[in-house]
Write a structure and sequence with these properties.
Length: 222
């Protein structure tokens, strides 16, 4: 604050004067200088070395992320490949077992079918031979002919037909029991569709089996 000083003039009249102290005049410039220095001081920033280190760390983090992505991608590819290999090995083992059992069964069926076809062919020849023989013997001629030899010959033809028919029927029963049973019934050949279907199937089965094996072979080669 200003300091008040008393003075006395010639007439001894008091006179008041205001005098600024020197200290007050000296403080103002210092405060102003401090404010100016504070406002003009540059802001504290990141040093060049710290910026380089930060960029280096960012590059390392990016590289690590790329490496992690590549590792995960390779792991997925390996897992997918392993699944495919397992599918191949399991499917191959299963199909080899199934195809082996199927081929063994087809071989048995083919053998039985071929044997059945052979027996049917032999039986057909026997049936046809004796049928032609019996049809060529006229009952009227036997009745009108009093020769015992002719009658004995006719009776022998019937007995031969019966014996051969029984033998053929027995052989058919070993390969086709149902068909042989129907054929062996006196009076007629089987009339139901199922029996005729089985007879036709016996003739066509070898061709069907051969075609199936051929298709399986083509699929395995493909």
């Amino acid at each position: 604050m200003p300091k008040v000083t008393s003075f006395f003039d010639e007439q001894d009249a008091p006179e008041l004067r205001f005098e600024e102290p020197e200290v007050a005049h000296n403080r103002l410039p210092k405060r102003a200088a401090s404010y100016a220095a504070a406002t003009t001081m540059p802001a504290v920033g990141i040093s060049p070395d710290s910026a380089v280190e930060l960029k280096h760390k960012q590059a390392m983090a990016l590289k690590l992320q790329q490496e992690l992505d590549r590792t995960q991608r390779e792991a997925r590819e390996l897992e997918l490949r392993q699944q495919k290999e397992d599918r191949f090995h399991d499917g191959r083992r299963d199909m080899c077992e199934r195809l082996s059992r199927g081929l063994a069964k087809l071989d048995r069926e083919l053998h039985n079918s071929q044997k059945a076809v052979e027996e049917i062919s032999v039986a057909r020849e026997v049936y046809q031979h004796h049928l032609d023989t019996l049809r060529n013997i006229s009952p009227e001629s036997i009745k009108q002919n009093h020769d015992e030899d002719v009658l004995d010959h006719a009776v022998g033809a019937v007995e031969d037909a019966e014996a051969e028919f029984a033998k053929a029927n027995h052989r058919l029963a070993s390969v086709m029991p149902g068909v042989a049973q129907h054929i062996g019934t006196p009076g007629a050949l089987p009339q139901d569709f199922g029996t005729w279907f089985r007879i036709g199937f016996a003739f066509t089965l070898p061709l069907a089996i051969a075609a199936t094996i051929f298709l399986i072979a083509l699929k395995l080669l493909a």
